[in-house]
């Protein structure tokens, strides 16, 4: 995780260049990247923009030295060179040279070295008063969407949920947050960023958990050497398969907030998912008594007294925020029906609490297709 101010030059052009770099390093489709490059050059692929791409994007990708970065860079170079040539822009000699190098037979077997991994930098842009700040999360994922039972890819719902968490940080700050079907771990990294008091990432697939742990290490949130850290992990990764997890295990996590992105899609899993949700969202005894006795102030950031904070935390009923792309209406209605039967209320809050658009360069991300549901228990 790193934060960066926007690139130099005039602010508008600096922001366009920052979007161009973000799109390249997030491995966005070549058409989007070349279109950003053209915009940054005021409508043409100038030598200045080509030089920017070479210095800030291509050299970074070359340092990754793996098959997918090579393939991606080769594709962008091809598109960039052909677009520049066809619109009469001269092409930097260095770009031709690098491209020639990329299309020559590979001497080393890069795919053996790094498998089918993609290394993407997901950059969140927001304003900090004095300009645009760029918060970058490096993520290792797979180029095969079915790998790790789909958990090794970044899905649009997790981008949406990340934007939501960054837009409403007080909902998560100082809270124990648990994610179901956490995939690559992006949402957990964001929860840590907004100062959740504890983050528990769970998934039912073991290879997904392995990749998730690698991402936490890349983002310095987990050290593989537990002797050095004394066994303390900032973000925990847990194997939690909805079908087999015991009631005792599930309730032992005792979260304030449950999150999930793109986990409502398999009709066979739905009864198990609803069981897990209803156990995690069960009102606490202290919540029920505090409905009458509590001071009513929600726990939030900036609370100094940990004891007071803990008592406030426990006086609030747990809630879940689930982001979903509804691909099959029947499956989603089946989820809602099961949730109702388990005394869970699911409210669509997409319009009521819209997240800020923090990924403006990501043309491949269809945020309009994502809905956000708040789920809570109707039991008292
Ligand atoms: C479509 S992926 C979404 C991953 C991530 N949340 C995202 O949005 O990028 C679904 C995730 O749910 C996990 N999952 C699916 N069925 C599960 C089950 N029965 N128990 C636990 N996890 C499950 C998968 O391993 C995978 O990581």
TrEMBL record:
Gene Ontology terms, MF aspect: transferase activity
Pfam family, one: Methyltransf_16
InterPro entries to which the protein is assigned, alphabetical: FAM86_N (IPR029426), Methyltransf_16 (IPR019410), SAM-dependent_MTases_sf (IPR029063)
Keyword entries, A-Z: Transferase
Tree of life domain: Eukaryota
Region (Disordered): 291-312
Name of this protein: FAM86 N-terminal domain-containing protein
Organism listed in the record: Spirodela intermedia
Lineage of producing organism: Eukaryota, Viridiplantae, Streptophyta, Embryophyta, Tracheophyta
